[in-house]
Write a structure and sequence with these properties.
Layout: E1 21-24, E2 31-33, H1 37-47, H2 55-67, H3 76-86, H4 98-105, E3 112-114, H5 118-127, E4 131-136, H6 142-148, E5 157-160, H7 161-164, H8 171-181, E6 188-192, H9 195-204, E7 208-212, E8 223-224
Parallel strand pairs: 1-4, 1-6, 4-5, 6-7, 7-8
Antiparallel strand pairs: 2-3
Length: 237
């Protein structure tokens, strides 16, 4: 009697749920400061008599100040501290009115650029019947800014950290968006430019995620080079 060969057991990954809704981060994903953070800072500084700091230097200073942040709360006070650090050692000579002026300048649409792939992608996703939303670490300036940039009407919900009382990667923001869009977390795809904030945050909530990496070679499966690649693999509804 021939021995019976036991069946082979293969590890099979269950299929991921169908995507029914997509949320987007804002800064670095949909829009960027234009022509740069440093140019905007320098423009405001010139109004207050400070013309000695080059925009490129300010952009570099801002980058260092931003990377040094831990648990940034996106409050006006927090932004003022970053601006002050960016302008060191000149900050002491700037009047108190300078900091609110910088804050207000970034509420204006002309200092932001909408990436070229944004409007075509949003229109194509809407045409496929997908629900769209925003999940962003931002402050009270975001809602009016999105209106001024012509983006607000694309999104059925906007989950903003200053209103939610939490910041990404807190999974509650992604769960709140899924609830508002009427989908299960697994049916939500989130797209952002930060792996620790967007990819890790979304996956911790049970959602799917993509990281848009516009300026560096792609190194991971979850990365895409532009937003139009979000369309790949998403079936029409």
């Amino acid at each position: 009697m021939n021995p019976v060969t036991p069946p082979l057991h293969h590890s099979i990954t269950p299929p991921r749920p169908t995507i029914r809704a997509i949320t987007f981060d804002v800064g670095g994903t949909l829009i960027e400061p234009w022509p740069s953070v440093g140019h905007v800072y320098a423009e405001v500084a010139a109004r207050f008599g400070l013309n000695s700091v080059a925009p490129d230097e300010l952009t570099q200073n801002f980058g260092r100040a931003w990377k040094a942040q831990r648990n940034f709360d996106y409050s006006q006070t927090g932004w003022f501290a970053i601006v002050r650090e960016t302008f060191e050692p000149h900050a002491a000579g700037l009047p108190a009115e300078f900091f609110p002026a910088v804050y207000e300048r970034f509420a204006q649409p002309d200092v932001w650029r909408v990436y070229d792939d944004v409007f075509p992608t949003l229109k194509a996703l809407q045409a496929r019947g997908l629900k769209l939303g925003i999940i962003s670490n931002w402050d009270e300036r975001l809602r009016p800014l999105l209106h001024r940039l012509g983006l607000a009407d694309f999104f059925a919900c906007q989950v903003i950290s200053c209103e939610a009382g939490a910041t990404k990667p807190d999974p509650r923001l992604f769960q709140q968006a899924a609830t508002a869009l009427g989908v299960a977390p697994g049916e939500l795809l989130h797209v952002g430019d930060s792996h620790p904030l967007d990819v890790v945050g979304a996956e911790s909530a049970g959602a799917q995620a993509r990281q848009v990496e516009r300026r560096k070679p792609l190194t991971d499966l979850w990365q895409i080079a532009s937003l139009d690649q979000v369309l790949a693999g998403i079936s029409a509804h």
